[in-house]
Amino acid sequence: xxxxxxxxxxxxxxxxxxxxxxxxxxxxxxxxxxxxxxxxxxxxxxxxxxxxxxxxxxxxxxxxxxxxxxxxxxxxxxxxxxxxxxxxxxxxxxxxxxxxxxxxxxxxxxxxxxxxxxxxxxxxxxxxxxxxxxxxxxxxxxxxxxxxxxxxxxxxxxxxxxxxxxxxxxxxxxxxxxxxxxxxxxxxxxxxxxxxxxxxxxxxxxxxxxxxxxxxxxxxxxxxxxxxxxxxxxxxxxxxxxxxxxxxxxxxxxxxxxxxxxxxxxxxxxxxxxxxxxxxxxxxxxxxxxxxxxxxx
Length: 297
What we know:
With 297 residues, the protein is mostly helical. The chain contains 15 helices and 2 strands. Helix 3 (66-72) crosses helix 14, helix 4 packs across helix 12 and helix 5 runs antiparallel to helix 7 (158-170).
């Protein structure tokens, strides 16, 4: 049929269909980009424009960083940002260390009771503890109103351990056998051979942990009673989701406060930017890390 265009033996869609697909993609992109653009613009817009346009600005008349200065000058938001950074960095380091060590131990064929331990990890994945027993455990060990309550209860993810174990099991046994013949200890094999070959999967798992710690607010809602120890996500929930009002003392601002929508959008940007900055550097590892670690278990 002469009216049908072919490419590599396959019929190409007609031009009306291609136009329709382009329009649909353009609409979808606009639905994604416009709200984000509005959040950024509102946080950068002057107080008068925000009030005149009802709290949502798409294109600011002039760019001002008053909302960010007010948020980062001190007060509850700056303190919450510091706590979130500490919890994310410390929690990710501890979680990644313990998960890789546990996964490597479970991947060794000569481990005594390996099958039982693997089933134990899978059991914890399928049957999670209830909310009340978990709260009582945290209370009994004295972690209430402590940043450790934001780290220790969720320090090891069974899913991440299974992914790491599957990846370690896929590594060639000849490498570890040769190192063992040369006199390397188990720790040297793990640190000098296994970890360098596992950069992709550890990067992905580390990002999973970092995003989990950064975005978590439920543990803070349960275990943190002191507002001065709230992470950023709790402040986001209190002052953005629940539409709370930030006063002069909360922002530690000495001049006239920016418009509340600008402050709320600035908090929202601060909560999103760290993950947006880290993700592009680790995105290329996602497919290789997750799929390779999930080939067998």
